[in-house]
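Hey, quick one: can you model this chain's 3D structure?
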Amino acid sequence: MKTITIVLTKYSDPLSNFFYLMSGGGYTHVSLSLDDAAETMYSFNFKGFCIESVEKHRRRGVTKSLFYRLQISDTAYEKLSEYVQEFIDNRVDYRYTKMGAILCFLRIPFKWKDHYFCSQFVAEALTLAGAVKLKMLPSLYLPNHLKNELAYSLQLRNVLMNPV
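Sure thing. Here's the predicted structure for all 164 residues.
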């Protein structure tokens, strides 16, 4: 068994503030880390696929965060690593989709080739790797939806409040 970390944070850029207000608060960004220390995290932001760190979050002024540590099978971990490596190797091919995030907020599923928003990327990675069985399509997850669903996951092993 391997441990991965889902990192939820509250950013304060204009689109994040909009989603924060419209969704009743909570978290506005989610990242995936392939280790339990969450030293390196993967996600999407306005620039496309991104590699993040706790220090980067601190520099951006993130003060609200939540780490969900999940235990997954070795097979799921290997698939997840391969999935993430594909994004790392071809990061210039991937783009952020504001339209996808807005349609997600409206509960309209939308998949655009090579375009992702943060929670869609994390939900798709978890689903395709078989790491966690999610109830909805990846394109229908906002960060708080993932938080709420993972809170009841059998794979959840540890929760840390405000580690950033």
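One thing worth noting: Residues 2-160 form a domain with the endopeptidase fold (from Nostoc punctiforme) fold (CATH 3.90.1720.10).
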